[in-house]
Amino acid sequence: MASTRIGVIDDHPLFREGVVRSLSENKDFIVVGEGASGEDACRIARDLNPDILLLDVSMPGNGLSAIANVRHISPSTKVIMLTASEEVESLVAALRQGALGYVLKGVGARGLIDAIATVLRGSRCVSPSMSAKIMERTLHHDRSAETLLTPREIEIVDLVSLGLSNKRIGLKLDLQEKTVKHHMTQILTKLGVTNRTEAAMRWRDRLA
Fold this sequence. Notes:
Elements: E1 4-9, H1 13-24, E2 29-35, H2 38-48, E3 52-55, H3 63-73, E4 78-83, H4 88-97, E5 101-104, H5 109-120, E6 125-126, H6 128-148, H7 151-161, H8 166-173, H9 177-191, H10 196-205
Parallel strand pairs: 1-2, 1-3, 3-4, 4-5, 5-6
Helix pairs in contact: 2-3, 3-4, 7-9, 7-10, 8-9
């Protein structure tokens, strides 16, 4: 079976050398290119088309910005962020841009190899501590939403999520349509959304 071809992009030479050395000791991997910037990432993607590209978040050219460029240049290349950034915003941005992995630099060689194997199988891989942060934020976000809404607003948004119009909601709850509209304005503000469709999605997502 052919070895997995990997590119390593990090602007800290000693760290990069350590990663390359660890991967090279595994007979299933071959490091085909190294770099220190977003520009290097794009060059390696274009010239070498690696199976996996390890990218840092904080580096010249911005690792997050490089993700979409790499995927455009080499659609078959799977991107894994290998970073010290524990910011949830960085994780979310990376996944939205198309990265399939988000691994913190404190990981050992075995953990990195396992992450690469997971991504090669077509699954996403996120460091456990980052997954926990996402879950904590989501739960807090959802609890906050329900705490902010009044019992009447919860009744209304429940019906909105079922697809009912303001008029039908008014009939069901024995409210005037303008009263329902007023409640909807409050619901949109409290949920931080701009329309009833987003409100319904947000409300349903809290149960996912």
